[in-house]
Structure prediction request, 419 residues.
Amino acid sequence: MTTIRQLIQTSPAKATELLARLAETSENAVKTRERLLAELKSELELSAQLEEEHLFPVLRKHKETRELVAQALNDNRQTRRLLAELEQTPKSSEEFAPKVAELRKVFQQSVRDERKELLPAVMKVLSDEEAQTVAGKIEDGKAEVEEARRVEAEQRRAEQKRERDQAEADEARRVEAEQRRAEQKRERDRAEEVLAREKEAADRERSSRAAARQAAEQVRQAAEVVEESSRTVIRTAAESAQRTAAAPLSSGSLFWDAMFGMWGFPQGRSVARSATAPASSTRQSTHEEEVIPLAEETLIVGKHTVNSGTTTVRRYVVESSVEQKVALYDERVVVERRRPATDAVTGEALTELTVEMIETSEVPIVGKGVKVREEVVVRRERTKRIETVRDTVRRDEVEISNTKERAANARPNLAYSNK
Prediction:
């Protein structure tokens, strides 16, 4: 068990170390100063509180130590005042370092007074049993405070871990929501693109059907024109045949026709003499003017869309092994003995001191993120080609012949044969 002597001698060790570290900080180390000052205040408050609760009430009972108790209480009040001033002083100001030096000076003087005056008086007025009781209470009080601090630190670390986990979960949900919204947007864009392509295809189909209907209508109209022309020609031929059948006969000579009363056609009309020609191709005209329509067929080409093939794009997931090198650092504690530069004692000597230094090792933490590597766009491109359509069409032509010319060409031959 720790004795009262050991408590008084070793109790200021941690506070002395914190004061030294705080004095070495610069004006830019604001966060470090705040942290060290908080730890120093907690340590000094604990030591003063335990002494005032367990040691000073016992020493007040003895006349020899009452004045020392008053002096120790005055030192504690002065220490608290300087701590309060340090808390109010900006950590980046030039006034902070001198106040730290002042607090360090007051604390070191208080420690020296306790070791030179208070400790011998305590050992003189208190029995071993009383001194051990006081030391046990102070040690138990420190243990309780340390346990409370440890529990609080663990709770704080657990809370920080929960906050980090919550933040990571929130970030993961946010990223997932963004990815889901992006995927929904891509799906909407693809759906809109598909609808646009379907609409375009429907428009082309309607245009093709309209062109086909227009071509069919033109063909029908041309067929009707041809049919009407054929009916007109047939009707005219039939009327001419009837008129020919009803007309008086002619011998071919004006004299004999006049004699026998067989020639009764008006002058200027011609009579067809071929009785063997078909009525559909040869007819005798009785009009001053005949109009012979010459028809021809025209090639009408329409278009319609057919399915020439289907392209399918399927997205699937593949897994591949990857590796990445990361630099990790390990910190280990090295303990070595060396010869001092001088044998003069510059700090505390012949006292118990415990120094703890934590070894650390870095370990890799693996996470995965998703990003868009590339995009595959599926669309239809429309190209134009020229194709030649070949077929046969019919048309009407006219052949003109004159019987007078044939007769003139035939007379010389007849005269030659009569000779």
In short: Residues 297 and 393 are 5 Å apart (CA to CA).
